[in-house]
């Protein structure tokens, strides 16, 4: 695909001396000849001089001035009045022609010149505007709001259940707090809105959609806004969530109720929340162990009903975790069969965070903390839900209670058998994956997968970069935009804090107090082959007057030759080589900051035997600064502004009783090592699960299974999407039609032969063999074949009357767009056009959609009424 792009001399701003906001210094066009400041000719001459200067460094005779910048057009009439005068008098002068334009008009006239254009296939990261000013800090800035937007997008696009702690410097209401667990709402909300039937009257999902759109501003989710603006984004998102919550809960109520001849508007089921609100979807403060619906007293015969919704197009099994107050509990699945469950004690570190942040968020101290996390494995059909019931037991607990063992050298021989730990080590993991820890050093040392025969040396550590404070010869500070470290410092435990281990049939956990302000839990699930690492970072101490940027490192003995791969907007993976670019001679002044990249989905590295992948729960910065090592930045707290427009330091705080401390961030990243060539399938499939976790709804009712539908799928029985196809959008539009987007998740072996050599170098993101240097296409032999989706089985409960294919943004028909597609003439030798494999047109009788490798197809679907 060809995209016309370019850079302007003044970035996205007008030329100097052509700003027309009230009180700007630029001279206005004074065309009243009776006034002493009459200056028409001076203004015209300066306009023409600047235009010709830009034209001398621009191909073709057409140039663009982007008239405006940040914080401008607060008084738009002053701009347009001056531009009207300039256009009039400049055109009257005749040396250049000026007109109001658009990017589309500009592109069309550039194309019409038949100019030959240079081609660039790489991206521009990392970007720097001067020697020590790399714009790589904002990849991680405000990690809470980054997670917030991710979660609400997923609730709007697909629900995400990972955890975050939002910065609430203001006294936010409960309604605002709901959003802290639900920025992943949008897709699940829109799917359920479709099943129930959209109402153009409120409540609907539009308010959340609008808030998410605003949050996509380049100074919003990027974290480069002022604090009060970040608070405003969060508040708007939370208001949107509250309305979407009503839509989702009423939709679930409709779907679970099996009463005959009853409209969805009169359903009896209520998914209740502790704030006396009608509905609940996943406790908004679950990440800090606070979930009133699950903390009910079950000893009097009550049962807690949990409806678990899966917004993915595949049947899915995943672990559910909720806090409970007693160990006397049992879990039943949708068929009434008791299933295996596990209880994990709530540790003091979690209780401390719960007490502080519930008080910060709600303005009151929480009730007594629950004693346990209840953990069980849930199985949910595609685009549907399953119901699980948690009940109290009168006898001994049915759930296995995990007992903590504080592991020191002296406990090895008594607490663990020789098979579990030898030579001062312990092992966690009940399934194929085993992690080995050295007890004396209290650190991870080995990763073992029995199924794949992977056995690798590995270490996990934390460090922080001290933010530059403007005190040296170059006064560039680290700030919201800029990452400029002034030294790297490893974190070390204060005192001999032992490892704490919990074992059970579902998950093993190992807890580590890294420092007083870094706590980590590593989980290995019996049914999974990756490690789930939950980190809690904060409050970052700054009493020493030094800002800190906290990073974590995964270190191996892999021979990676300066090479690693980072995702491009969660879709492609792009090859990165430290301190090197293929198309220009790169000079790196900051060896760390100059090699940081944005990580939205994950990154990986490989050698001639294995590949190590790390996936993330929010956008962060990351790199491979040392061969064999992957690094992620998790949190930043800085004391100086970096002079890029924010005007304040990146120093997020949370206040309780008028006492403030630095923001604490809680989150997850996921680690896996595979034989070479086998990691792509996990990155693709599990990446979808990270974006689209289960959505949970709670209620208390007796006799649930006899009066309600306990299982549902929006698809035809036994049908699911192919493993290599994801449903990106399912949204009912105002006219009753449905917007559908389907995406192919991987590449085929045949794809490379169809594209040009230069395009191969760019697109061969998953397939470079470290031993041969050859691009070996084919992410996974099972996921890189042409895929088909049967639309009528996808919409099993409706009859399709018409399917219209649209462009990606759904604002024009695909056929019309392709007729208007511009083909550019490029420099160099004639190039073979990249003819990627694409799915064919849809047969209106069969209604089958074909997708080729990496293809996204968008449709408007009409149904019979």
UniProtKB/TrEMBL annotation:
Q: What is its EC number?
A: 3.2.1.-
Query: Residue limits of the Glycoside hydrolase family 38 central domain?
Result: 133-237
Q: Pfam families given for it?
A: Alpha-mann_mid (PF09261), Glyco_hydro_38C (PF07748), Glyco_hydro_38N (PF01074), Laman-like_dom (PF21260)
Kindly list the GO molecular function terms attached to this UniProt entry. alpha-mannosidase activity; carbohydrate binding; metal ion binding
Keywords per UniProt: Disulfide bond, Glycosidase, Hydrolase, Metal-binding, Zinc
- What does the record's cofactor remark say about binding? Binds 1 zinc ion per subunit.
Needed cofactors, names only, are: Zn(2+)
Give the matching Gene3D superfamilies: 2.60.40.1360, Glycoside hydrolase 38, N terminal domain, Glycoside hydrolase family 38, central domain, Golgi alpha-mannosidase II, Golgi alpha-mannosidase II, domain 4
Q: Which GO terms describe its biological process?
A: mannose metabolic process
Q: Which family does it belong to?
A: Belongs to the glycosyl hydrolase 38 family.
What's the protein called, per UniProt? Alpha-mannosidase
């Amino acid at each position: 695909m060809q995209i016309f792009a370019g850079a302007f001399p003044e970035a996205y701003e007008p030329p100097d001396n052509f700003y027309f906001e009230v009180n700007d210094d630029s001279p206005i066009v004074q065309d009243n000849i009776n006034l002493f400041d009459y200056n028409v000719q001076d203004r015209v001459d300066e306009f023409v001089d600047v235009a010709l200067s830009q034209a001398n460094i621009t191909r073709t005779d057409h140039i663009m001035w982007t008239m405006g910048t940040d914080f401008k057009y607060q008084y738009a009439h002053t701009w347009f009045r001056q531009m009207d005068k300039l256009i009039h008098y400049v055109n009257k002068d005749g040396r250049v022609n000026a007109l109001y334009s658009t990017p589309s008009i500009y592109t069309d006239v550039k194309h019409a010149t038949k100019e030959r254009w240079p081609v660039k296939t790489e991206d521009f990261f990392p970007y720097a505007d001067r020697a020590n000013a790399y714009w790589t800090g904002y990849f991680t800035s405000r990690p809470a709001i980054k997670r917030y937007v991710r979660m609400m997008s997923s609730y709007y696009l697909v629900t995400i259940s990972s955890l975050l702690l939002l910065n609430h410097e203001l006294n936010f209401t409960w309604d605002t707090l709901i959003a802290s667990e639900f920025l992943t709402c949008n897709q699940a909300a829109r799917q359920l809105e479709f099943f129930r039937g959209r109402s153009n009257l409120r409540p609907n999902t539009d308010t959340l959609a609008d808030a998410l759109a605003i949050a996509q501003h380049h100074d919003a989710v990027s974290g480069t806004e002022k604090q009060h603006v970040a608070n405003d984004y969060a508040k708007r998102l939370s208001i949107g969530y509250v309305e979407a919550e009503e839509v989702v809960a009423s939709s679930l109520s409709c779907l679970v109720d099996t009463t005959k001849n009853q409209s969805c508007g009169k359903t009896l089921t209520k998914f209740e929340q502790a704030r006396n609100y009608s509905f609940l979807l996943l406790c908004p403060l679950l990440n800090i162990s606070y979930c009133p619906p699950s903390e009910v007293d079950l000893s009097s015969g009550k049962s807690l009903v949990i409806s678990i919704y899966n917004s993915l197009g595949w049947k899915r099994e995943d672990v559910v975790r909720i806090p409970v107050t007693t160990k006397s509990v049992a879990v039943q699945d949708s068929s009434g069969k008791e299933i295996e469950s596990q209880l994990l004690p709530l540790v003091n570190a979690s209780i401390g965070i719960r007490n502080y942040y519930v008080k910060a968020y709600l303005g009151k101290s929480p009730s007594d903390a629950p004693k346990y996390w209840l953990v069980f494995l849930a199985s949910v059909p595609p685009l549907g839900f399953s119901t699980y019931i948690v009940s109290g037991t009168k006898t001994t607990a049915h759930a296995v209670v995990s007992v903590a063992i504080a592991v020191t050298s002296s406990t090895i021989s008594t607490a663990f058998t020789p098979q579990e730990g030898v030579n001062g080590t312990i092992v966690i993991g009940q399934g194929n994956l085993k992690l080995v820890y050295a007890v004396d050093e209290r650190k991870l040392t080995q990763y073992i997968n029995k199924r794949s025969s992977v056995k690798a040396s590995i270490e996990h550590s934390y460090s922080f970069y001290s933010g530059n404070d403007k005190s040296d010869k170059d006064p560039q500070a680290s700030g919201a935009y800029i990452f400029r470290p002034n030294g790297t410092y490893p974190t070390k435990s204060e005192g001999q804090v032992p490892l704490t281990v919990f074992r059970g049939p579902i998950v093993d956990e190992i807890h580590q107090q890294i420092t007083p302000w870094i706590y980590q839990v590593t989980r290995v699930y019996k049914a999974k082959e990756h490690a789930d690492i939950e980190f809690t970072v904060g409050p970052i101490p700054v009493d020493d007057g030094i800002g800190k940027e906290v990073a974590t490192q995964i270190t191996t003995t892999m021979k990676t030759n300066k090479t690693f791969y980072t995702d491009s907007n969660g879709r492609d993976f792009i090859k990165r080589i430290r301190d090197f670019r293929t198309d220009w001679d790169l000079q790196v002044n900051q060896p760390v900051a100059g090699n940081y990249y944005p990580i939205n989905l994950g990154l990986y590295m490989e050698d001639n035997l294995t590949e190590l992948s790390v996936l993330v729960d929010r956008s962060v910065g990351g790199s491979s600064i040392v061969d064999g090592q992957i690094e992620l930045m998790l949190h930043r707290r800085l004391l100086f502004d970096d002079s890029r427009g924010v005007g304040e330091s990146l120093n997020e705080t949370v206040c309780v009783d008028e006492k403030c401390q630095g923001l604490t961030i809680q989150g997850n990243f996921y680690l896996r090592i595979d034989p070479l060539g086998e990691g792509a399938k996990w990155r693709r499939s599990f990446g979808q699960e990270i974006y689209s976790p289960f959505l949970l709804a709670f209620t208390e009712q007796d006799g649930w299974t006899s009066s309600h539908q306990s299982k549902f799928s929006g698809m035809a029985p036994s049908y699911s999407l192919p493993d290599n196809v994801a449903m990106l959008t399912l949204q009912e539009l105002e006219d009753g039609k449905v917007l559908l987007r389907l995406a192919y998740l991987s590449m085929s072996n045949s794809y490379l032969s169809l594209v040009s050599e230069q395009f191969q170098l760019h697109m061969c993101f998953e397939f470079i063999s470290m031993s041969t240097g050859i691009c070996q296409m084919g992410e996974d032999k099972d996921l890189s074949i042409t895929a088909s989706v049967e639309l009528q089985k996808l919409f099993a409960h409706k009859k399709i009357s018409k399917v219209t294919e649209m462009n990606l943004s759904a604002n024009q028909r695909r056929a019309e767009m392709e007729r208007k597609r511009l083909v550019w003439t490029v420099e160099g030798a004639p190039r073979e056009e990249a003819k990627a494999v694409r799915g064919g047109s849809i047969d209106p009788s069969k209604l089958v959609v074909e997708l080729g490798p990496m293809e996204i197809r968008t449709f408007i679907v009409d149904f019979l009424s």
